[in-house]
Amino acid sequence: MARQLARTAPLAAKWRKLAEGRCAEKGERLTPARLAVYAEMLARRRAVSAYELIGLLEKRQERKIAPLTVYRHLDFLIRTGLVHRLQSTQTYLPCDHPDQAHESQFLLCSSCGNVDEVESTGLEALLSRIADERGFRPDNAVVEVKGLCGACAVEEQD
Amino acid sequence: MARQLARTAPLAAKWRKLAEGRCAEKGERLTPARLAVYAEMLARRRAVSAYELIGLLEKRQERKIAPLTVYRHLDFLIRTGLVHRLQSTQTYLPCDHPDQAHESQFLLCSSCGNVDEVESTGLEALLSRIADERGFRPDNAVVEVKGLCGACAVEEQD
DNA sequence: GAACGATACGTTATATTGTATCCTTCGTTG
DNA sequence: CAACGAAGGATACAATATAACGTATCGTTC
Predict the structure, then answer these.
(1) Minimum distance, in Å, between the CA of residue B105 and any CA atom of chain A
(2) Residues B87, B12: one domain?
(3) A131: nearest CB among B139, B140, B147
(4) How confident is the model at residue B3 (pLDDT cuts 50, 70, 90)?
(5) Is B82 helix (H, G, I), strand (E, B) or coil?
(6) Distances (CA, A) of A73 to A50, A66, A86, A142
C-alpha cells in the first residue's frame, strides 16, 4: 500500500484537512483510494470526465482501473460535497469553496473550458420562491450557465 | 412516403403550425421525418430518452431506426426551440410554451418523473447580473430543480 | 427541366458514459 | 479472532452519443 500512496498526486494540507473534516461530519471513511482520486482532481483544478480521470489515475499508478471504481469514488466525493458534477458536460470538478457545504452555480466557458463556481444566496432564494409558488418541494438545483469567460470574451473582440 | 406519413403519431394542428412557423423564422426545413419525431414526443408529453424515442418510433414505423437519425432530428427540434434537452436526466421534452422562443427553467419531480416548465424573467435577469459581475458573457443557462411536485409531496406526508 | 450546391437522410461502426453482478478485502466491534 | 458491514476489485454489459461515409432530396439558377 505504501507504493500506492507514493503514487498519489501531491495534496495540499488544506484539502486533506477539508476532506477529513467532511468525512468526520458525515461518518464517512477517508481511504487512500478515495484520497488519491481527490488529489488527482485537485492536481488539475479543472473539470474532467470520469474516463479522463481514469486515464490520469492509471498513468500515475501504472495499473488498470475499472470505471466502476472511479465512479464509486466520485460518488463518495460528491456525497461529501468535495466534488461537483457538471450535468451539462458530464464532468466533475473539485469544489472551490472549502468553507462549508452549499449549493453552487457554475459559469462554463465554452471557449477555454474554464469553470467558475459561484454562490448566490439570492439566486437560491429566488429558485425556492419559484418552486414554492408551484407547490414544488425542491431538493437540489442545477444551475449551469454556458458562455464566454471574461478573458475569452475580450479575445473574441479582436 | 405515404406509408411513413400514415405511421406518424397524430399531431394537433396547433403544434404543426408552431413547427411550420419556427421553421419559416429560422429558414429550416420541416420534413416528414422531423415532424414524425416531434409528433411522437408530443404524443407522450413527458421527458423521454433518445433511445426510448427510438423504440417508440421503431414500433410505430415497424422498421429499424439508427440512433444518429434520431439525434439529428432532436438537434433540429432543439435548434428550432420546439424541444428542450434536460441535462440532468439526459432526456428530451417538447416545449410547453408555444407562444415564442425563450429560456426555460424546469422543475423535475424525482418521484413521478413529471417535468414542469417554467419561465421566470426575474431569474433570467438575476443570472445575467451574476454573470455580468464576473465579466462572463452568458449564452444560455441550464436551470433544473429536482424535488417533489405538489402531488407527490402531498402523498409523501401520509 | 437540367445542373448544381446545400441540406437532410441512412448505414455501419465506434466512442463515451455509466451500471450490474459477484466476490474479495479491509476495519471495526464484540 | 469471529462476525459483520463498508469499501474495493474484476468482469461483463447497458445506455448515451458521435464519426465517417455515401445517397437522396430540395431549391435555386441557368
Answers:
(1) 10
(2) yes
(3) B147
(4) very low
(5) coil
(6) 10, 11, 16, 21
> Would you tell me which residues 83-122 of chain B have a C-beta closer than 8 angstroms to some C-beta of chain A?
87-88, 105, 107, 109-110, 116, 118, 120, 122
Q: pLDDT tens, A101-144?
A: 678 899 999 889 999 999 999 999 999 999 999 999 999 999 99
**Residue B133 in this model has a pLDDT that exceeds 70:** yes
| Of A37, A42, A39, A38, the residue nearest A54 (C-alpha) | A37
Alpha-carbon span A58 to A68, nearest angstrom: 14
> Could you say which of B94, B115, B140 is where a domain stops?
B94
- Give helix then strand counts, H and E, for chain A: 7, 5
As for how many domains chain A has, the answer is: 2
Residues B110 and B58 in one domain: no
Question: Taking 90 as the threshold, does the pLDDT of residue B136 lie above it?
Answer: yes
Q: What's the pLDDT at B158? A: 61
C-alpha cell at A108: 462554463
Please indicate, yes or no, whether residues A19 and A89 belong to a single structural domain of this protein: yes
A138 is a domain residue: yes
Evaluate whether residue B18 is within a structural domain.
yes
Is A100 inside a domain boundary? Answer: no
Q: Are residues B26 and B45 in the same domain?
A: yes
Considering CB atoms only, which of B131, B141, B150 is closest to A136? Answer: B150
Q: Which H helix or E strand runs over B106?
A: strand B105-109
* Residue of B128, B144, B145, B157 to mutate when probing chain A, most A C-beta within 10 A: B145
User: Which of A74, A94, A114 is the last residue before a domain boundary?
Assistant: A94
Quote the pTM value. Answer: 0.90
